[in-house]
């Protein structure tokens, strides 16, 4: 399995519930084809650099996941017909980038220092 980074721009005119539903649908599709979602990061509503499909704003969502290349083809086909998605980009991470990502994910956060009362 390869690790992929996927940026999706969702139509900003949707309600919060519809946006969450679209994100859940994308996550279910990835998981349904045997993928493993590593991270979903919602960047929020931002102004687009240029107008896309008569939209000036969009909701940016970043997905990081492990899956096979056949799933990517199915995911791209889904994005083309899913009207909620304005634009998308899928990038396969190199082995070096994947190793760096795994190091970041594995490293535990430093424990808080406890101050003992005297």
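Sequence proposed for the structure above (118 residues):
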């Amino acid at each position: 399995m390869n690790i992929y980074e996927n940026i999706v721009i969702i139509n900003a005119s949707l309600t919060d519930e519809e946006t969450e539903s679209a994100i859940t649908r994308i996550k279910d599709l990835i998981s349904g084809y045997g993928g493993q979602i590593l991270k979903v990061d919602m960047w929020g509503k931002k102004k687009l650099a240029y107008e896309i499909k008569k939209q000036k704003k969009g909701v940016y969502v970043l997905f990081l996941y492990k899956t096979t290349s056949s799933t990517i083809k199915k995911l791209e086909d889904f994005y083309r017909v899913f009207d909620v998605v304005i634009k998308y980009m899928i990038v396969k991470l190199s082995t070096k980038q994947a190793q760096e990502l795994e190091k970041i994910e594995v490293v535990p956060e430093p424990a808080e220092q406890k101050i003992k009362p005297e």
